[in-house]
Design goal:
The complex is a heterotetramer. Chain A is mostly helical. Chain A has four helices and no strands. The longest helix of chain A is centred in the first third of the chain and has 22 residues. Chain B is mainly alpha-helical. Chain B has one domain: Helix Hairpins (Orthogonal Bundle), CATH 1.10.287. In chain B, 62% of the residues lie in helices and 0% in strands. Chain B contains three helices and no strands. Chain B starts with 7 loop residues before the first helix and ends in a 13-residue tail after the last helix. The chains are: A mainly alpha, B mainly alpha, C mainly alpha, D mainly alpha. At the A-D interface, α1, α2 and α4 of A face α1, α4, α5, α6 and α8 of D.
């Protein structure tokens, strides 16, 4: 029973994936209204030659803050998991 | 449907994601489960990066840039974010598996499982 | 690890760390940035851990050193973002100022390091954070796994 | 004050984030200073949320464009699409924000005394603050990819917190299940974001909603998003992780992880109502949401009845209660394209569902806290091993009674008000659904009567003779939630009119949300 459900759902998902791959825009010709603005204005607005870095730290800097936070969270989590077990008294 | 033949990168994405989901559903070994998630992540990252490719484009960096159209910068930034997130998730999952192994001596999801129902 | 590995990694480590710092510093001009450079740098530290053993490394580089470094990097990053709050959070307030404030000529150019405002500073902050974060993950997991071996 | 309001949306996210980065440094100096910092931060966040809420109810949607030369400059000059990340806080977002901030504050105060008995407190508080950041960021952002990033912050910190008591193998199992579900769900969401990006080259929710063509690819993206969010909010049939994770999470974190799953419920509503809105074939999607809701209600409660672990029991009830919200809002979604039905009962049903979110957050939070109080004193979660605790733990048993009565929908408690709104309006949509909802409510009452009887009444067991009441901070944490529940029970009309109905209208009026960013272009 469980196996059948798994197989059916996997089949549906693979069908969806292939449909996506066939329906999506032709490879190499994406729409680019937002990115064209960035490519044109990165030098005058941020002064960075590297458009990717200007996206990472300026246009979408908040995402990067979140990303740095995720790394911080994971490090905190890993250190927390492997913390030394001390006696409760000397916390 | 024109240009289907050029959509091979997207089909590769579909293959990667499909394989990954198969692994996630079928495998009982926890390490293999994490591998499945990592492959899924690679598939999605590949998807994002292929979205941004423009035919015959150059990297969107003006330092000593040759003439030509530039590929889209935003998908590259998104992929960078996604990769770092993937590293973070994988690290945490593997740590949990290490500790589970210490407790139960097994990394089989059925045998190390305590809670049911 | 064997003596050969240790000697070679002693040789290589300098180049890896330098390259990591280069990638961090030139993030706004060439491919790379804080995350990529930080990862390169941290891979150097991972090489040290593999070559010399986590036990020997943690005598010199304690986990809490990395934690402090990571928190500081994060604080600098969010501090730079707060720096623009007179206008808007994350506003690039250094463009036009003497510090990293040059505007490059439009189009292809040879690259001037004093450009891009807060971006190079953020690259450094993120670089510190990633170096510390990835190193501490590798170090802690290596220590934990060697402990398992000792117990059994 | 004016400046504070103008920047409040970002400060609500950035201040706890700053505090989270600061906590490891401060706690090297003093543990006391760390506790004060954490509590002060959350109090300040609560204050900011309240002043922002006031501003939103007076002046409408709050917009904050990050990194632009002015917060209201959503679209660059002489251009037609937003490029930067925009925080867009409307009445629905701030409604969820109020829930998150309040419950987190109570749960954190509750956790203080718990952490005196455990190691690793520094990391615990850091993760707690990051969980708050994740929830608030997810609720306030107006950008799809940013939403994904905050979803990951929420998931990773939640998973680490669930696995906090590493000395128990099941804590690790609960945390691991949570992170696997979250990782897969988040990647599915990222895939959907990629589909949007490939069609419209946009990431902003409002801009996407305006550009939405409802093509085949959009339908696929909707299916993926709905699946991922349902997985994260523990809707049946993807609920298996919830009892395992909720039952092992330490101290005050269970309510917080639960509220985090409610934030994913917000994500689902935002997708269905704002991103797709009327372009959607709403009747079909509405029915899917209703069916998931009814299944969650029914499966959750039937699984809960025979549980002997008190936190597992509550976790299954949590799944069941989420069903009510899905049912209420699903009815609203099903009639979204039909203005007459929407006005006559759809809006009422949605208000009931949304009101149920906050009611449920309060009493479910309270119940999780009382369960953890029992575990704190008795060292067991097994109901069969408890008994007679109402003598030793008077206040806890009173809190438990209030929570249990509220969750079972007994008048005059707040759970009754929202459930009544759902019954009435759903009855006019489809009587059978309403009857099922009432039936589930009765089983809930039965289940909680059994739990109360097992834990609190009966003869005092000899091994628990010396059990004392829980420490003060725990009582304060539970007390805050109880006072709010009583307030909500006394003035339901006031609450519905002042915060619930604006939230409902914010979901229904897609155009207002779009215009706030696109400026009526």
């Amino acid at each position: 029973m469980r196996k059948t459900t798994a197989v059916i759902s996997l089949g549906i998902i693979i069908a969806i994936l292939i449909a996506t791959a066939l329906l999506i825009h032709p490879f190499g010709h994406p729409p680019s209204q937002m990115d064209d603005y960035i490519i044109e204005n990165t030098q005058s607005e941020t002064g960075a030659n590297n458009a990717v870095t200007s996206v990472v730290f300026d246009y979408r800097g908040f995402d990067t803050l979140g990303e740095a936070t995720i790394l911080f969270t994971a490090v905190t989590g890993v250190v927390m998991l492997f913390r030394r077990k001390r006696q409760p008294t000397d916390v | 449907m024109t240009g289907t033949i050029f959509n091979i990168p997207f089909l590769a994405v579909a293959a990667l994601v499909g394989i990954a989901l198969y692994i996630i559903i079928s495998q009982r070994n926890l390490i293999k489960l994490v591998m499945g998630i990592t492959i899924l992540e690679s598939g999605v990252n590949l998807f994002l990066i292929t979205l941004g490719y423009r035919a015959a484009g150059i990297a969107p960096i003006y330092t000593n840039a040759p003439e030509g159209v530039m590929v889209l910068p935003v998908p590259q930034a998104l992929t960078l974010t996604s990769i770092v997130i993937g590293v973070a998730t994988t690290a945490l999952m593997l740590s949990m598996i290490m500790l589970t192994y210490r407790h139960t001596g097994d990394i089989d999801s059925e045998k190390s499982r305590r809670m049911k129902g | 690890m064997s003596k050969i590995v240790r000697t070679i990694s002693n040789l290589l480590i300098l180049f890896i760390l330098t390259f990591g710092l280069y990638v961090i510093m030139h993030g706004h001009l060439t491919p790379g940035g804080g995350f990529q450079g930080g990862a390169v740098f941290a891979s150097g530290i991972a090489l040290l851990i593999v070559a010399f053993g986590s036990y020997n490394i943690q005598k010199k580089l304690k986990e809490h050193h990395f934690s402090i470094l990571e928190s500081s990097g994060a604080m600098i990053f969010i501090g730079l973002a707060f720096g623009g709050i007179a206008t808007v959070f994350f506003y690039n307030f250094l463009v036009g100022s003497p510090l990293f404030g040059h505007i490059p000529p439009p189009g292809s150019n040879p690259g001037d390091i004093w450009t891009a405002g807060i971006i190079p500073l953020m690259n450094i902050a993120v670089g510190l954070k990633v170096i510390a974060g990835l190193s501490v993950i590798v170090l802690v997991m290596a220590l934990a796994s060697s402990k398992i071996e000792i117990e059994e | 004050m004016h400046t504070l309001v103008a920047h409040s949306a970002i400060l609500i996210i950035a201040i706890p984030l700053l505090a989270a980065f600061l906590t490891p440094l401060i706690s090297r100096v003093s543990k006391k200073a760390r506790d004060i910092l954490v509590i002060a931060t959350l109090v300040f966040v609560e204050f900011l949320v309240i002043i922002l809420a006031k501003d939103i109810y007076l002046n409408g949607i709050h917009i904050y464009t990050l990194g632009a030369s002015s917060p209201s400059l959503t679209i660059p000059e002489h251009y037609m699409v937003p490029v930067r990340i925009i925080l867009e806080v409307d009445a629905m977002s701030i409604f969820m924000g109020i829930i998150s901030a309040t419950v987190s504050l109570a749960a954190t105060i509750y956790s203080i005394s718990f952490m005196k008995e455990e190691t690793g407190g520094d990391r615990f508080y850091t993760l707690l603050l990051l969980l708050v950041v994740g929830m608030l960021g997810l609720e306030f952002t107006g950008d799809m990819f940013n939403m994904f990033v905050f979803l990951e912050i929420l998931s990773i910190s939640g998973a680490a917190l669930a696995a906090f008591r590493t000395r128990f193998a099941d804590a690790l199992e609960g945390g691991f299940k949570y992170i696997v579900i979250s990782a897969v769900g988040a990647l599915v969401i990222l895939f959907a974001i990629g589909i949007f990006y490939s069609q419209y080259n946009l990431l902003n929710i409002a801009a996407l909603a305006q550009a939405m063509q409802y093509t085949m690819l959009d339908k696929i993206a909707l299916a993926l998003l709905a699946m991922a969010f349902t997985m994260k909010l523990a809707g049946v049939p993807m609920h298996m992780w919830a009892p395992d994770t909720y039952s092992v999470a330490p101290a005050g974190t269970t309510p917080m992880i639960y509220i985090a799953s409610q934030a994913c419920l917000y994500g689902l509503f935002r997708t269905c109502f704002t991103l797709y809105g009327v372009t959607l074939n709403t009747a079909t999607i509405g029915w899917i949401v209703i069916i998931i809701g009814v299944l969650s209600m029914f499966v959750g409660v039937t699984m809960a009845v025979h549980q002997s672990d008190v936190k597992r029991l509550m976790a299954y009830h949590a799944i069941s209660q989420s069903g009510y919200m899905l049912l209420g809002v699903g009815v609203g979604l099903a009639v979204l394209g039909n203005p007459e039905a929407l006005a006559s009962y759809g809006r009422e049903a949605m208000s009931g569902g949304i009101f149920h979110i906050i009611n449920n957050a309060l009493y479910k939070g309270l119940l999780f806290l009382t369960a953890e109080a029992l575990f704190f004193r008795l060292g067991t979660r097994d109901l069969n091993k408890m008994g007679g605790m109402c003598r030793n733990m008077k206040y806890t048993s009173i809190f438990f009674i209030i929570g249990a009565l509220a969750i079972s929908g007994i008048p005059p408690f707040n759970g009754f008000t929202s459930k009544l709104m759902i019954y009435e309006s759903v009855y006019r949509f489809n009587p059978i659904l309403s009857v099922i909802a009432m039936l589930v409510s009765i089983i809930t009452l039965a289940s909680f009567t059994k739990a109360f009887q097992a834990a609190f009444t009966g003869p005092a067991l000899p091994q628990y003779k010396d059990v004392k009441e829980v420490p003060k901070p725990m009582l304060i944490g539970m007390g805050i939630l109880t006072i709010i529940i009583i307030f909500f029970s006394l003035f339901p009309g006031l609450i519905v009119n002042s915060i619930v109905n604006p939230a409902t209208d914010a979901l229904i009026n897609q155009a207002t949300y779009i215009n706030a960013v696109m400026g009526g272009l």
